[in-house]
Amino acid sequence: MDKRDKKRADVLKQKLQKLQQLLSAAKAQMDDPVEVRSLEKQTAEAKAELEKLK
Fold it and tell me: I need a labelling partner for 39 at 20 to 30 A (CA). Which of 1, 18, 23, 47 fits?
């Protein structure tokens, strides 16, 4: 991994952490099921991109 990839991986890890917090809060409240699906999709995309970088 070069410097740019490491920086991108760090940003993705931070984004994943934030998305997981939002997702758990959204699941607890369940006001909008569309929001839960959207957050799950964003989390999966971020995880896939992080795996691709590794």
Answer: 1
Cα 7 from Cα 20, distance rounded (Å) = 20
Question: Total structural domains in the chain?
Answer: 1
pLDDT for res 52: 92
Q: What is the pTM of this model?
A: 0.85
* CA-atom Rg of the chain in angstroms: 13
Query: Residues 34-43: contacts with CB within 8 Å, 24+ apart?
Result: 43/16, 43/19
The domain of 25 spans 3-53
